[in-house]
Amino acid sequence: MKPTRPLALVTAFLVVGALSYGGVQLWSHYGTPPGVPASAPLTPAILAVIILATALGFRSRLKTQREAVQRIADGEPTPPLLPGQRAAKPLDPLQAARAVMFAKASSMVGAIVSGVYAGYGVFLLSKLGIDVYRTRAIVCGITVLCGLALVAAALFLEYVLRVPPSGPEDGLPKDGTKTKSAAPTRPVRNRPDGTFPVRRESNHSGS
Question: Do the beta carbons of residue 41 and residue 142 sit within 8 Å?
Answer without folding.
Answer: yes
